[in-house]
Records
---
Amino acid sequence: MTCLDLSDARPADSPVVSVGYYGLPVIHGPHWKWLITLYFFFGGISGTSAVLSAIARLTDREDDLRLARIASFVSMTALLPCPIFLVLDLGRPARFLNMLRVVRVSSPMSMGSWGLALFGVATSLSTLLQLLTDFYTSRESGIVSRLSRPARLLAPVTGLLGLFVAGYTGVLLAATAVPIWSKRPWLLGPLFLTSATSSGTAAVVIASSIFDRPIEAGEAKLHRFEAHAMIAESAILTGWVYALGPTAKPLVSGHVGSILRHVVIGAGMVVPQLLLIGSTRSRNQKRRLFLTRAATILTLAGGFALRYAVVQAGRDSAIDPQATFDMTRQ
Amino acid sequence: MSAPTQTGDPRYGFLTDATLCIGCKACEVACKQWNQLPADSTAGEFRLTGFSFDNTVDLGATTWRHVHFVERSTDAGMAWLMLSDVCKHCVHAGCLDACPTGAILRTEFGTVVIQDDVCNGCGYCVPACPFGVPQLDHADGGSHKCTLCYDRLRGGLAPACATACPTASIRFGPVDELLESGRQRVSLLQDQGVPASLYGDEKLGGTGGIGGLSALFVLNAPPEQFNLPSRPRLPRQNIVPAALATISTAIGLCLAATFAFRVHE
């Protein structure tokens, strides 16, 4: 056996001392990618449109009841693919029911599974009541008035569970060792919730403009609310990036950074607001419809891009040992 | 090396000493043999870190003991630091907190074990570990890590790696005994001028919320050189602030929505 003298073998320009152990990751990153990004997006829309439906139903005005109806259909439709995304993402999809094997408060994923299951039941019941109401309304039956009471009772339950489903995902990501998700834990949940709110509102707006007679007053309310949610979202996003400091690098640089700047903020926040301002000034009905639809579609695209950016930045952040050490030295 | 009793109330764990490790990798081999783990890089890609003999690179689904080979330039040429890394079997374990199926449990030996017949491969324990231990196996879809040879402990045997270690760098026993001898070893080394420390001793600090490790390490260099975080934090600690902030935002949004709907045009 020969003993190699390796002291001369190393290229002169390669640093002898790298970060940690040969610059290898300290923690193992998540495997989550497209399926989870899609779930975050659709789950968020489903949850927040259920919230809108509940609030609109509880105001009990004729216009708002029509909005509540559309919003509950949007919520149900957006919810349908969610279990598919989640089950397919499992390493062992056939064992998806093990998610409901225990209740574990220390696991946001356990709480989320239960919350999503209960939300599914509540949303299905709400949708069923709405379908029955629709069915009997056209037959002028007296049953309709008797259906409004359970619908009003169910609304706050569905709404609260909807808020949970839209918001817990941010808590789930914060409760990991991934630096960019966990360094400032109090901002990711609010970011996901406000982003889900603007996406959910946009989805309700576009659904009502396609499937219902125009509800101008209702749409104006939704747009106003959407603008508020988007202002909160952009403020939280800015605050988050600022609070993360150098840990924000995988989010603001490279391919993810360019998606964040151009798609999330540019196309998803700034342009829709400009289009909506333009639409309120336009007198041409067709042009107004076109502008609001374009705005809502861009808002949805921005919401999806934000989820993608946060998930991908988490993967990049996890493999950076320096980011982990920066957090574990204090 | 005393074999545990089955009623064992005390926690059992490892004391792994970097100053005694010779990098023979008997622990890696014994672990793979006993636990029937396949070789890494079965796809054909062969990889080494640096110029050394570390071909397993990291702890993972099929590598539950991993020997670090830290290369350091000294005046006399290259010097090695070696350390056999393993699951820390934390007193408060991030993986166990995160597991939504109850597949991960705390055993009667105080160790943390993934029940393979329950795990559904959700992968949440993987980023929830502050030390990067559990990993999903692409072959079977489940998450895997060191069991501290649960089956051997049940049978009154010491773990395979500790049994195979020829230099007693890996010691197995009740954690309070290991802590005691670890502290003695560190003070002996410090008296000899070695910058030694006991990683995982909660009394020395640095395990934020984790409450100490059942796999302790005698280190002769800063922990980061072995890719160990100096002051790891338990991810569960983020749940309360994150949840409170999210609930506050939810209340704000509901108020804004109610306000938006109340305004009459």
---
Amino acid sequence: MKFVDEFRDPKLIRQAAQEIRRLANPDRHYRLMEVCGGHTHAIYRFALQDVLPPNIELVHGPGCPVCVLPMGRVDDGLSLARDHGVILAAFGDMMRVPGRTGSPLEHKARGADIRMVYSPLDALKLARENPDREVVFFAIGFETTAPSTALTLRAARQLGVRNFSVFCNHVTIIPAIRAILDSPDMRVEAFIGPGHVSTVIGCRAYEFICRDYGKPLVTSGFEPLDVLQSIVMILRQLEEGCARVENQYARVVPWEGNLPALRAMAEVFELRPFFEWRGLGFISQSALRIRDDYADWDAERRFSMPGVRVTDPKAAQCGEVLKGVLKPHQCKLFGRECTPEHPIGALMVSSEGACAAYYNYAMRKSDAVAV
Amino acid sequence: MCLAIPGRIVEFLPAASHLAVVEVGKVRRKVNIDLLREDGLAIDDWVLIHVGFAMSKIGVAEAEEQMRLLAMLGEDKQAMEELEGYRFG
Ligand code: SF4
């Protein structure tokens, strides 16, 4: 195996791997879900699965925001640029996500005014620079990103920017975890908890997973050693027969989360009664919409959108991969019709998507951790 | 978009702007610091930046670690592109 010498303290990595092998009961099969797409990326990049004994299986969770967005929402966003002539501002991650009639990038090539931005504040700036145009920000992301949209909307109101609005597709991670726990075809022993989402929501929000479902959750950093240490912490809990929330990433994640961020979200957003997730279907109270106070800046109220539901191409198995039921390479289209160059599903677009990560690393050569 | 970029605070702009100047490598950019108002930020503090907003205060060791992680994941160039791409400040 190739060894990456920039790893901090390979000895510690070796020790963690040994501890995992010691703790794992050979008579048991462990399915551990990493909720966050950032972890999925790191796990493939460093081939961490190869370090683990075969009875520890890492299952990829729903924590990639572009991957869980149903195609109908992509089409709705694109209709704003096409039918209403707005300037549609979107993060780079969205630009190559396929809609039914092509990706934002393809629509841009056909003449739609779609601009890539790195921050919602850049979208607001576009609106101020183009007072005679309507500018809509295509907002996606979990709780890591939602506070920045909230603060941008607050700034828009304070500054009285009237030609700016947000197409809100923010989702919340807790209901998705609950849906996975309640899903009959899902068997997960424990969770590797998201790192950056937790900087906002803190650790308390996960306590129901331990209390009501008896499963451990350990919020984890993104380095190979972090992930391995989190697995050690999970296995220790399973061995003791207990389930609690632990914070492996305490150097970045405060237990209580970020209160100003939570307040900004609560001021601007409220929960939608339900929202469709790709692969997981409709999940109640799992997404954010803009409160009445901010109705003037809500693209869904200012513009009529088709709001149609679009089913994914038949052979595409994005849903099964998102739920962790199938591995990326088990999708019939993987590596054939669907590649990073010609993606059919969003999981093949984003670096946080399981299919892209698997394609880029597992198919080629990842920098495996030597043990 | 899911990137978290470490930056060092080098200057605070007037409170009404909600901005501070951060330095990452040799690049300086303005970012919004409203989410860390209660953390008593000071010059030379390190923060993690996400889509133009400082998200959490971190130590210098964590900042270095995050930089190395971005490089190991092949996302360091993308992170600098994002930072240099901020237009709002
Ligand atoms: S290979 Fe493509 S179509 Fe299949 S699950 Fe992955 S993204 Fe979806």
